[in-house]
Design goal:
By secondary structure, the protein is α/β, with parallel strands linked by helices. It folds into two domains: 250 residues, 3-Layer(aba) Sandwich (Rossmann fold), CATH 3.40.50.10540; 75 residues, formyl-coa transferase, domain 3, CATH 3.30.1540. The chain is 40% helix and 14% strand. The protein contains 19 helices and eleven strands. The chain has a six-stranded parallel β-sheet, sandwiched between helices. A three-stranded antiparallel β-sheet has the order 7-8-9. α7 packs across α9. The longest helix has 25 residues. The radius of gyration is 25 Å and the shape is elongated. The relative contact order is 0.13.
């Protein structure tokens, strides 16, 4: 049986939406026992809404996006607006290691489950609170999702083509916050292992996004320059773009960093004379004439498939890769050879293919071994086995609607 890095760690999970759910899913895939606390009063919208069709589901267990970003978790139904439901959570926290939540600042405190309360119950508890703008500051009450994070962090402003509007980014921005959250929890666990102390983690999703904009901020601080949108251009490399290829909506990405690489590109295309053309002879000249150069390159790429172009250029040391759609990724033999995909058995969806763990650890090999949970699937385990409630006590709590 595999031993996972976080085996023996229990996490009480109040998180939802992509940023929160993916963070605890990462920790679950690392071996933590993640118990997602859910309620019929405020059901996780990813359970009942399809991002693909824009439609609501009649039942909460068939959503593709929920089942993707909650792999490896358990689910227990507790009404946090009920005093006895709150008491159950406190008992669960007492035998847990980490609490993760991404409600608006102050909301979890209003439920009687703030950090000051929980550390009285479990002094070494680690609590991560993730929100749009953080738990302090004049905008702490702001609510928001990924499009807000991309806008206020500066990402949207620099994304898109020249002379066009900023491009709204969505789920991919949430993943930046999710990975930062998971990293912070791991750091706090190491600290607790060394000192015996728990702690409170205050994470702002916009700050977790802005941290990837360092070069843009430094350019402004040092040069007073505000970077804007520049499409697929690179500040230094040219050619550096995505080029149309043979076939419907097929493209290849090409990036050339040095004069030697450009010479190799010219040789493959069959126009070695470009390497000595004064318009393209060095990086500076190529950068200032890249619009013209891009047109010349695309005259060649449209006569080849994106995989053919990739192979020809990679063989001579030029960075190139196909722009893949979902079908390309699904059929990618390289990904299959590396075990990118895994299969899990879902009680309703059946045998389901999911993305396996992307970390290849030689000492602690990982694999997805549990699908996302059904709504309340692990009630008996949580209430009966972990909290020690009898069947009659569980039934009484159901009648009181403290649990479902």
């Amino acid at each position: 049986m595999l031993e996972y890095p976080l085996e023996g760690i229990r996490i009480v999970d109040f998180a939802w939406a992509w940023a929160g759910a993916q963070a605890t899913s990462i920790l679950a895939l690392l071996g933590a026992e993640v118990i997602k606390i859910e309620s019929m009063r405020r059901i996780d919208h990813s359970r009942v809404f399809s991002l693909t069709t824009g439609q609501w589901f009649d039942e909460p267990d068939s959503s593709v996006i929920f089942n993707d970003m909650n792999l490896g978790k358990m689910s227990a139904n507790i009404d946090l607006s009920h005093p006895e439901g709150v008491d159950l959570v406190k008992k669960l926290v007492k035998i847990s290691d980490v609490v993760v939540q991404n409600m608006r600042p102050g909301k979890i405190d209003g439920l009687g489950l703030g950090y000051d309360v929980l550390r009285e119950i479990k002094p070494d508890i680690i609590m991560l609170s993730s929100s749009a703008r953080g738990n302090t500051g004049p905008e702490r009450e702001y609510i928001g999702y990924a499009p807000l994070f991309s806008a206020i962090s500066g990402f949207a402003y620099i994304s898109g083509y020249e002379d066009e509007d900023p491009v709204r980014l969505s789920g991919e921005i949430d993943l930046l916050s999710a990975t930062s959250s998971a990293f912070a929890v791991l750091a706090a666990l190491i600290h607790r292992q060394q000192t015996g102390e728990g702690q409170f983690i205050d994470l702002s999703s916009t700050e977790a996004t802005s941290v990837f904009m360092g070069e843009v901020f430094m350019d402004y601080c040092m040069n007073g320059r505000i970077q804007t949108r520049h499409g697929n251009k690179d500040p230094f490399m040219a050619p550096h773009n995505v080029y149309r290829c043979k076939g419907e909506d097929k493209w290849v990405s090409i990036a050339v960093a040095t004069d030697d690489e450009f010479k190799s590109l010219c040789q493959v295309i069959g126009h070695l004379e470009w390497a000595t053309d004064e318009r393209f002879a060095d990086s500076f000249s190529r950068w200032h004439n890249q619009a013209e150069l891009d047109k010349l390159i695309e005259i060649w790429t449209v006569n080849h498939t994106h995989t053919e172009v990739t192979q020809m250029l990679q063989e001579v040391g030029v960075a190139a890769a196909p722009s893949c759609n979902s079908e390309d990724i699904w059929n990618d033999p390289h990904l299959r050879d590396r075990g990118f995909w895994a299969e899990v058995d879902h009680p309703i969806l059946g045998r389901k293919t999911v993305i396996d763990t992307v970390w290849k650890l030689s000492g602690t090999p990982l694999e997805v071994n549990r699908p996302a949970p059904l709504f309340g699937e692990h009630n008996q385990y949580v209430f009966g086995e972990l909290l020690g409630l009898s069947d009659s006590e569980i039934e009484k709590l159901k009648k009181k609607k403290a649990i479902f």
